[in-house]
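Why do we care about 3D structure at all? Because function follows from shape, and shape follows, mostly, from sequence. That is the central idea of this module. The next example makes it concrete: a single protein chain, its amino acid sequence, and then its structure expressed as tokens.
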Amino acid sequence: MNGNPSAQPNVAWERLPWKRLEVAVYRMQKRIFQASQRGDIKTVHKMQKLLMKSKAARLLAVRRVTQDNQGKKTAGVDGVKSVPPAERLTMVEAIHPRHTNQRKPKPLRRVWIPKPGKEEKRPLGIPTMIDRACQALAKQALEPQWEAQFERNVRTVQPKLTA
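And the structure:
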């Protein structure tokens, strides 16, 4: 590929098969959900670790934080508002569980926002982009297990119909 070398990561990021990555992550999440419903905690934990290490899950977590979410242009304490494609690919590797143990999360940026309908304000903590990506990755792994637990509770509280 001839031309600007800084454009190559942009092309690489845009050419990723996003639908296939979403399907792969969905399948792993479905397996976590099913194992949790069975009560197989050992398998749930193994699948969660596998999902956290999965490149597809890491790519989707970074994409959600840097492109899809509403707060994508909100900077943390590091001042980063937008992440170019080359840095997104670097961020994907940086949020691998093997690297996150060596990296300490940065402090939150504190912003005071008004409470709805009141004069009072409440604090809002804004993490850095890489910390948000780590949180998104952890959410992908934990959510199916908790969904399975809450679904069990919904089934037991169904109202009885009387004629």
